[in-house]
Structure prediction request, 342 residues.
Amino acid sequence: MPLDVYVETMRAVQEARGYITRDRLARGFTNLVINEDLLDQLGPAVNAGKSVFLYGPPGNGKTVIAQGMGKTLGGDLYVPYAIDIDGDTMTLFDPICHESLDTDEAASLVKPAPRDRRWVHCKRPVVMVGGELTLDQLDLTFNKIAKFHEAPIHLKANGGVFLVDDFGRQRIRPQELLNRWIVPLESRVDYLTLHNGKKFQVPFDVLTVFATNLDPRSLADEAFLRRIPYKIPVEDPSLEQFTQIFELNCRLRNLRFHSVMVAYLQRRHYAPNNRPLRACHPRDLIDQVQAMCRYQGREPVITRELLDAACRTYFVDEEPPQQGSAPFVPAKKSARRRLDIH
Prediction:
């Protein structure tokens, strides 16, 4: 596939994407309990197609929200197997990043319409990277034996969402990543270099989402933050939202929901320890309750005793030492007799 054809195709994909309405955005998050104010901040960001910074305490669903943004975009597109750049080949289609929608012609009884086999029909990609991200993955990789280049990972996300999860905890320093993308985030194009030194331009049509539980000001300077126009905090859920999340997780696991259990958790394990509510807590605690029921050979059920046991193993310092009790001191190893050899 010639490079200019791919560029024109991506421009057409961008123009045909359409706008995301509030109802359509809400449908993309039907499996989540999400604040309406947060939805109203996410909607313009998705429509603009600009980069987004999701930040806030850990365990409140920043990663799931970013994936929901990709689900909201919906639709499909065609991804070329490879692109020709003046005689050099760059592979683009990646079955790890792209979910093919092409049917198996051999298994079909109906002869499909002829199509250009240089393209693969795929869902809009949602590519996620975490702590394993390195700077090499953002540039072309040349295979000296096969004599072709492999596209960088963010180019494979073109037309979809590229999520940098746990930003600030990558194997590269945040400043290195930011310096690499400071031009593409603003100009919406990227420049790659072939093994022979030739540079060429590719579209950067991707909704880039940075998710972190660190302070954004400690990760990026003002020049870079200016190029991320949407900086959206993901806060702790309210008690009402926490209850809804607890009920949703019970329903997904076919467990009977009792609102009194949430009130007990708040009264016994949260309020006395001044512990914040996190969106991930209901799922994790219910999973521990189920694991204990399986171990005991009983029907899964949520009780106060099981919740107490789950909290003791889930939270750190769940039961602090009583006032006046002796502090914990690790036992010393028994002294060994020294042998002097003369």
